[in-house]
Amino acid sequence: MARTPTIQIELGFKAPDFTLPDVISGKSYSLSDLQGAKGTAVFFICNHCPFVIDIIDELVRIGNDYMKKGIGFVVISSNDVINYPDDSPENMKLFAANYNFPFPYLYDDTQEVAKAYTAACTPDINVFNAELKCIYRGQMDKSRPGNNYQSDGKDLRKVFNYLLENKDIDFEQLPSIGCGIKWKA
User: Mean pLDDT for the chain?
Assistant: First the structure.
């Protein structure tokens, strides 16, 4: 299993806009539709990645905890579904139902959204403030498949709490690590 880290780029960039279909509802959503009043998190995940499976229950808990506090959640799969059929929209819908997603699960067929966000891995996590300026690109917590650390979302929860308290991020941002996004040929 290859370990691909989040690409570290300068923070402060504005969240790129998009409109993508939600595999759960069949509706299309733009960034502004899902933006939270206090901030917005954009996650690139997929169904089959062991790194995502390792943290998915906690991601759903975090969504349930923070969406009601004004944090928007954008969850996107950008993988090539021809070569990775486990990540097809039909399977995305089943995955979302199995884990009781409280947020839409968007499909980036062209992979243009993943490229716009410089996403590299699953999970790849970006957190934006209320003005959609990036304040965090990093890990959810230190859980990785096989490291015997139970996912608790510690890093991401800390970011959200700082955001809700209007505090600047003053701690080291460790990159997320996961499977590389499966790019189309």
Answer: 96
Distance CA 59, CA 19 (A): 22
Tell me if the domain spanning 4-180 has CATH number 3.40.1650.10.
no
Burial 30-47 (b: 16+ CB within 10 A, else e): ebeebbbebbbbbbbbbb
What is the mean pLDDT of the segment spanning 96-118? 98
Query: Distance between CA atoms of 101 and 94, rounded to whole angstroms?
Result: 10
Query: Cis before residue 123, ω within 30 degrees of 0?
Result: yes
In angstroms, what CA-CA distances link 150 with 29, 30, 105, 126? 32, 33, 24, 22
Instruction: Please give the structure tokens belonging to residue 130.
Output: 């209320």
